Amino acid sequence: MITVGVDIGGTKALAVRLDGTETVIQSRVELDRSVETLDAIGRAIDSVYDDTVEAIGVGIAGLVNLKDGTLVWGPHVAGTSLQIRAGLTERYGVPVSVDNDANAAAVGELKLGAARGYSNVLLVTLGTGIGGAVIIDGALYRGGGFAGEWGHVQIDRDGLLCDCGKRGCWETRASGPALVRLAREVVSSNPDSALSRIFGSKPITGEIVVGAADGGDETARALVTEVGRSFGQGLADLVAIFDPELVIVGGGLGSVGESIIGPARRVLADSLYAGRLRVPPAIQVARLGPAAGAVGAALQAAEEGR
Ligand SMILES: [Zn+2]
Nearest to residue 295, comparing CAs of 110, 126, 131? Predict the structure, then answer.
């Protein structure tokens, strides 16, 4: 069965076309928040769509009503109560499934990636924000539908304002925008620093900071380590709650690998509850990389369209 999967994040959409479980095409579309979300999804789908496609799956960074395929709301995407399934079914005339992006990524990793063969797994996406999915006994745990939104666990009541409207959420410390904010602070307080020269007049992005860190810039390395440590601190809390066998890290920033995961792993080992008496779970980068959500959405579409 030929299906399309789209993963809609805060700044980019990734689309894949799958033939069974083989990825045939993959494309990345930059998103502009001024563009209406349904139109943005349509653009991403069109980048891989043709007449052979039999079903479409969408994973989106937000709270999704699974019954009617509506995006209830998401702090990093435009619009509320968006009727994604109804809108896309009308436009493309094929069955459409809609889920939270992290849930879609978890399905991708469970069927084709790092979670294969495991029963109890947490998937944590690190990108524009932090999302998550819980696999218990080999199946997605959804709660009432909105489980896994631990990016908005409030770790500092008086902390920085989060995109969700609360203060001090975990993702205000650990995310692409958190890394960019730290880099901006360094550049504005020290315009002669090596980091300032690297950025020049370009807009600072998380990828550039990670690239500078991996290229040997000590200041950039310290910033990436700080974000990695904040990420690991939250992972330690999640492991205290769920005691998973494996933690999979996905999302744009999570997928960069050891520069972020290394410091996170060390903090997890140091601050895990009863850490001297237990072995912390392995932390692995999503095997499907940044495409995990799109591939998972395409697999979900195949399952539902069958
Ligand atoms: Zn928040």
Answer: 110
